[in-house]
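Continuing the series of single-chain predictions for the mutant panel. This is the parent chain; the variants come on the following pages.
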Amino acid sequence: MFSFEGFMRINLFLRGVYRIAYLNLLWMATTLLGLVVFGIGPASYAVAAYIDRWFRFGETPPVTRAFIGHLRTHYWRSAAMGWILSAAAAIVITNIFAASTWLLQFGNVAALAVIAVIAGYVFPVMAATDVRGLHRQIAAALMLGVGSLHWTILAATAVGVTVWLLTTFALPLLVLFGIGIPAAAIGFVTRIVFGQLAADADGTATQTSPPRARATAPARLHLARGTSE
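Parent structure:
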């Protein structure tokens, strides 16, 4: 028989699954209401912001209220990011089918993979760090994805296997978790990476060093901690 702690763990897991599914439905509704063009960026930011606060700090406020709050916080910035990524992906996909040689096709497929990495990490970067400027956030997302390439590959593999299983055996569930699964996978990766960055930043802050050394220190992602939106 299960112990009380076992039942509590199962209950906690099921509540997490429900929360992921509900975030997925909110993402779909927001994207459709925004006619995709005006909805996909803000919806992706809102999901990333909620998952970041949930996975890193254990905050689980009411999903709808928190989602709408995140949606309003950086609406136009996240919408502009969605436009940039969508336009870049459309151009690259068009080039893949229009390329006359396999070498050009391979180059465009590689470019599409880079765009996918940026799209996966840029909204968590917007939500969890104090990096400002769309071009800097794109660069930080690429740096994060490439710098933690092993985690990126593991997350992509887990998402691919899960999506394949759902497509093969439970296709209707893909509607409930199609966006939530990759968002959760990226959330696990950023929880680890941002945690390491925060620990490094705390360790640096406790060391006594002259101001010049701090001014010449390598640039890093500064996490926005202890704030709520």
